[in-house]
Amino acid sequence: MTNPLPTDEPAVLVASDAPVPAATPGPGLGRVALIAAIILAAASVLASVILGLLGAPFVDRSGPAPSFAFNTTDSDPRTALLGLLSPLHVLLGTGVGLWIIVQSIVAISLKRGR
Questions:
Q1: Contact predicate 30/108, CB 8 Å
Q2: How far apart are CA 107 and CA 64, in angstroms?
């Protein structure tokens, strides 16, 4: 059986001299920021309603204004969980919200979705 490729000549790859057109960036970055903002707004409202309904029995009405006295070291596991979820809701919402703002600014400056 004969080898169809001659082995005595080195293979030479020639690259085309024509420039490769750059891909135009799409609006995906802006769309991701918009969708994330809508989801964050809906999730924040839902989490606020749920935390408010679950925390209603634990409202302290002894002062001039009602307040929540949640503590993560409370012996009642429901109160301890609410004490953990309330600030976590605020911190995650703030962090994700800042990320959305930064991503929106980047998308606008790069003209990748408005």
A1: yes
A2: 47
Mean pLDDT of 73-81: 77
Contacts of 60 (CB under 8 A, 6+ apart): 66, 67, 68, 69
- Residue 20, Cβ neighbours under 10 Å: how many? 6
Q: What are phi and psi of 68, to 5 degrees?
A: -95, 135
27 Cβ contact list (under 8 Å, min separation 6): 107, 112, 113, 114
Q: Is the pTM of this model over 0.85?
A: no
Q: Give the up-direction half-sphere exposure of residue 62: CA atoms within 13 A in the CB hemisphere.
A: 4
